[in-house]
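User: quick one, fold this
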Amino acid sequence: MAIEVLEADLQATPGEGTIARALNNFHGRIRGGYKRRLLNTAMADKPMREVMSGGADDAQKHSELRLNQTLRQFYETIDTLLEGLGITGERAEQLAKVAGSGARKLAPEEQAALTEYERVGVEVYRALKLMGYTDSDIVG
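Assistant:
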C-alpha cells in the first residue's frame, strides 16, 4: 500500500480507516505486543530463513534483509525507530495495548493513544520500507 494513502488516511477516524487495515497486526510487533512473546523461544536468535515453515513461496514475500535477520534483531530495529520518534518502551507498551484492544468505544485518552499509535506506526512503516523491508516483513 502506498505510504501517501496511509498519510491521507490520518485524517480519518483512528482505528477505522486504511491505516488500521494497513498496519494490520503491527501493534503486536512493538514492545508490549503479543508477538513479542516469541522472544522467549529458541527461534528468537535464529535467522528467519532457518525458522520459516512456509517454504519458498512464503520466503518470496519477505526481503533478504529480514530473511537473514533474527527476530530479536528485527524487534531491536523497530525499538530503535520508535525511540527515534520519542516513544519510550513504556509508551510503546501502552500504544500496543490500545491498538490491540479492538475496542469500538474508547475513552478520550485511549482515542488519543490510538491516534498516536497510527501516526508513529506510519512513520516506522515508512522507515522500514526505506530500509528494504516488505509489507510481509512489517505487518505479516
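User: anything notable?
Assistant: The CA atoms of residues 12 and 65 lie 33 Å apart.
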